[in-house]
Design a protein that fits this description.
globular, single chain, magnesium, primosome, 25 helices, 51% helix, metal-binding, 597 residues, DNA-directed RNA polymerase, Dna Topoisomerase Vi A Subunit, Chain: A, domain 2, DNA primase DNAg catalytic core, N-terminal domain, DNA replication
Length: 597
């Protein structure tokens, strides 16, 4: 867990204009910077970046956030990775409360990572240079319909024949980093004596695999002739874990946003060939089944994920594994589909045979996840017999148990109940599904609390826009918030505590990042502040003091009325005097404030 104070300090040091400017062409426009929104198609700029608020906002699609949020949305990074990326750029070291690694060891690990990354970059440059003088490799790529432009876009290269070609670029061919990066293989004699080192990749077209920052972290090599293995991938290294990475994601990010979906294929060549033929929104898993980490990465990029598989048995098995990986991440605002091509085709050959329009139609008609799940569990079972229906339920149970209680799960439960002659309630009870949806009468509000209105809403806006104002709020004010009701008071107390935790240097960007990490309760207010002009903090401070004083006065009046209605007692008389003194003090504060204006 990264401390909130560090996040606030980081966002104070990072300039969002520089961060966004790496990816979006920005022009000065008044107090802000303007550009074309990278999250939706537009011809005139509606995307603004505020250097004072350290926040971005698009008036077209509503996207907004901090530097951290931008990296997460644009690059598909997770929160921790985005924080580490920004911290590295400003020379900060991210503290982690559960980090037990000694500083010296951590520094050694960072140095190792840098060495591996440098080795991969040099190797990539070498392979790309070799492709220019490799007629057989060039002929192979042209035979697959690829142009030099697409080959350059994906950084394709060629590993020439020979056992130690990398000696040409690495002065110390025996350095440990080459083996750790998976570029070379060390073979030791059976007696443990002589060690022989040789290049892992030889006589192969090379596909660089990049992370979300565009750094080369691994390679896939495709043999030119009928040799085996057909594809050779880098091994697992400190830089590369195939269960986390997707080929072509770095290159496809903007195309995915433009298309509104990502197409997940099974191979490198599918991705490159589809990009050549007008489908640059394709990515591929790296010689492994789709994992939940892959799904999370894809969901950060788009609301619609379409998996493309061959129609043979192997393709069906791969689709089933992808289905299982997706289920824990299913959400009602996300769409997941499965596209099955004829047995004799992969995406590349299908487009070449039938054309772009036919492939687009296949994508449009892809099978929704709900339909594929039902199809999988029904299989060849006999729905006319009790045993067959029971077996369908048996097969469906672990799949439905892995889903969160969404509206889509309820729809699948209803469909399954109809097929197996039961009721949705019976299915949910039998399967022991967490938080049964079928029994719910009414969906709760997003935060579980009514939205703030009136004076409460104004206070919330001020605190979100200028968190240091919360430092002026004392215990008496926190108690007086009960005047708004228990739920509103709880919200204000939590908001004040979060703002005060940031300290005097807390800003709108860091507080907004904190609030968004807690849920979407304040999204509308954050968006409103991001869209509006910068407010005068001194004027806001005066208004907040006046509002807090008004709340205290109203709370005291309310208590006086309750005391009068209850009748006089020694205790109530004493409390009456206390209230009168507090009211007099509030009046003196008001008069002093007016005198100083």
């Amino acid at each position: 867990m990264i401390p909130q104070s560090f996040i606030a300090d980081l966002l104070n040091r990072v300039d969002i204009v520089d961060v966004v400017g790496r990816y979006v062409q920005l022009k000065k426009g008044g107090a802000n910077f303007m550009g074309l929104c990278p999250f939706h198609n537009e011809k005139s700029p509606s995307f603004t970046v505020s250097p004072t608020k350290q926040f971005y906002h698009c008036f077209g699609c509503g996207a907004h956030g901090t530097s951290i949020g931008f990296l997460m949305e644009y690059s598909g990074m997770g929160f921790v990775d985005a924080v580490k990326d920004l911290a590295q750029n400003v020379g900060m070291v991210v503290p982690e409360q559960d980090d037990k690694i000694p500083p010296a060891q951590r520094a050694q690990m960072q140095a190792q990572t840098m060495a591996l990354s440098d080795a991969m970059t040099q190797a990539c440059d070498f392979y790309r240079a070799q492709l220019r003088t490799a007629p057989d490799a060039i002929a192979y790529l042209k035979g697959r319909g690829l142009t030099g432009e697409v080959a350059a876009r994906f950084g394709l290269g060629y590993a020439p024949p020979g056992w130690d070609n990398l000696k040409a670029i690495f002065r110390d061919y025996d350095v440990v980093a080459l083996a750790e990066a998976g570029l070379v293989i060390d073979r030791v004699d059976e007696d443990g004596g002589n060690r022989k080192r040789y290049d892992r990749f030889r006589e192969r077209v090379m596909f660089p695999i990049k992370n979300t920052k565009g750094q080369v972290i691994a390679f896939g090599g495709r043999v030119l002739d009928g040799g085996e293995p057909k594809y050779l991938n880098s091994p697992e290294t400190p830089l590369f874990s195939k269960g986390f990475e997707l080929y072509g994601l770095f290159e496809a990010r903007q195309a995915i946003r433009d298309a509104g979906y990502v197409l997940v294929t099974e191979g490198y060549m599918d991705v490159v060939a589809l990009a050549q033929m007008g489908f640059p929104q394709a990515v591929a898993t790296l010689g492994t089944a789709c994992t939940p980490h892959h799904v999370q990465k894809l969901m950060r990029q788009t609301d619609t994920v379409i998996f493309s598989f061959d129609g043979d048995k192997a393709g069906r098995r791969a689709a089933r594994r992808a289905l299982e990986a997706c289920l824990p991440h299913v959400a009602d605002n996300k769409t997941i589909k499965f596209l099955f091509l004829p047995t004799e085709h992969d995406p590349d050959s299908y487009v070449r045979t039938y054309g772009n329009e036919a492939f687009e139609q296949e994508i449009h008609e892809a099978m929704p996840l709900s339909q594929f799940l039902i199809k999988e569990v029904v299989g060849e079972h006999d729905l006319q017999s009790p045993e067959g229906r029971a077996r369908v339920q048996f097969d469906a149970k672990p799949l439905l148990q892995s889903m969160t209680p969404t509206a889509l799960r309820l729809q699948i439960v209803r469909g399954l109940a109809q097929l197996t002659q039961t009721t949705p309630h019976e299915i949910e009870s039998l399967f022991e599904l967490a938080k049964p949806v079928a029994l719910s009468r009414k969906a709760p509000s997003r935060s579980g609390r009514p939205a703030p209105v009136g004076l409460e809403l104004q206070i919330v806006r001020l605190l979100v826009g200028h968190p240091p104002l919360a430092l002026d709020i004392d215990e008496a004010a926190l108690s007086a918030f009960q005047f708004f009701g228990a739920e509103a008071a709880e919200r204000l107390v939590q908001l004040v505590a979060g703002a005060q935790a940031l300290g005097a240097n807390g800003g709108f960007a860091s507080f907004a990042q904190h609030l968004k990490s807690q849920g979407d309760e304040y999204d509308e207010i954050i968006s409103e502040i991001a869209r509006g002009a910068e407010s005068d903090v001194d004027a806001d401070r005066l208004f907040l003091r006046s509002a807090i004083r008004q709340i205290k006065e109203d709370a005291l009046k309310q208590e006086l009325m309750q005391l009068s209605a209850a009748g006089l007692t020694p205790e109530s008389i004493a409390r009456f005097r206390e209230i009168t003194a507090q009211q007099a003090q509030l009046e003196r504060e008001k008069q002093a404030e007016f005198a100083n204006r």
